[in-house]
Amino acid sequence: MSSTPESDEFEFPAGLPVPQPLRDLLRAFPQLRQPSAPVSGSFAFHAQPPGAVARYFGEAGHAGGQAAAQHLGVFGVEPDGSAIAIWRAPQGGLPVVYLGSEGGGRVLASDALQFLRLLGVGYGEFALYGNLDEPPEEDGEVAPELLAWLAAQGLSVPATGEDILAEAEQRWPDFDGWVEDAIAGRVVTPVPAGPSPAAAPVAAAAGGNLWDQMLACIGRRIDDPLVLQWLAAVGAKPLKPATPHNDSTYVSVRATGIEVSAEMAPKHRGFWPPRKDGRIWRTYVTRIIVPVKAAGLIPLPDGLSWAHFPGTVDGHGFMDQAVSDTLELAFLRADKGGSIARIDARLPTERDFMEASADYEQTKPLVYVEDAFFVTWCALQGLLDPARYPADLLAPWRARSATPLQLLHGPCGRIVWTDDLAPGASDFWDRYYRGFGTPDAERWVSDVKTVFGSSNHFREPEEAMTPDSWEAFDRIAPKIARRFEAWRRKAPQG
Prior knowledge:
Layout: H1 20-28, E1 44-45, H2 50-53, H3 63-69, E2 72-77, E3 83-87, E4 96-99, E5 105-109, H4 112-121, H5 144-152, H6 162-171, H7 175-183, H8 210-217, H9 225-233, E6 248-252, E7 259-263, E8 276-277, E9 280-281, E10 284-291, E11 318-324, E12 327-333, E13 340-346, E14 352-355, H10 358-363, H11 369-380, H12 391-398, H13 404-409, E15 415-417, H14 425-433, H15 444-452, H16 470-490
Antiparallel strand pairs: 1-2, 2-3, 3-4, 4-5, 6-7, 7-10, 8-9, 10-13, 11-12, 12-13, 14-15
Helix pairs in contact: 3-7, 8-9, 11-16, 15-16
């Protein structure tokens, strides 16, 4: 049976209406129904029954996918297999969403009419990331029939898709979380569609100094009233929540060059591990860039002046200044003279060497065993920071009354970051454990393969795994010791 919609009904699940704008467009221009019809970029109209839609959430017959498919009406596809669909949102409304061919999704437009305007921009394709804040790189091919229909409705085509996308993502920030729930089988029977929720109003900026308010925004959640007020005061849109497929988001103000970035998983212990509220990941402001172009909007405090770079003029063009555990400033000197070109306010972060995902361990409980062997060897050799890992804390592992994986899960808190390591040890981790600048045969991954045949990371869940035992640890420990001695002989002295 052809997947080209032979009528304006498509193959939506029962109770999910085909939006009137789609009906009207295809009745006016039935030639756009053909799979080869150039509508906009790589988009083509396409019908998929709910049974086929379920594949975006797992293997055929997956119960969660079958339930999720009852909330979605696919009406378009892209060449890579991604789909464009109407979503019956649990909180009401019928936004248009993107379903990635390899998983994940995002909201594209608040309704079908706004999506048709988005098609009018002429983007070559849609993806899981990007703000659509730039026009298409090349003049996109848009069907003249679509443009004529939009004009007949009195609808303009914007220069970019930024506003259409931003409005939708602010009103339905939980779609990616809904997709995660569908994959996990937590999506239940559809609920009747209600009216679209209104966009949340943004309060006017509170009184006070915009500089001080800016610094106070760093590390706060993007839905914090102060963050929303400050963004409104500088002319920026609200930030959208991050997702596992798009773990950082940003907004910018063209007139002043101000940029604001946010992350769901900043490498700072106060914000770790990543957390969700319902289906929405907590997302924090991590960086604000203020160029000299914004000098008239954001006054500097006493002691700072755009005219005077705070570092030495003959030194480096950057200067960092620690303010607190959750704030640091970075100054960029102008190319000519001794003035400031840009100021960054940002959340101080560490560099990660090891992170053990509890979710991953649900399916493979021993997946991080070899990593635990390495961190345990380092702990017993004094390569972890003694302030964080004092001798009494490590006593059970010296006595071998606790296992290596218990060290990674317990005292390490499932992470090993730069501040966990003793002074100088990060270079050994970089070169051996991460393999930077090291021949393949001398890297940690090669030693694991030599000793155990394969890492648990690469074994299927039903295969025999390297056990979390001291006997297994003793098989790899001599290799690590030899690599460490070789590194120490080559390491710079002093």
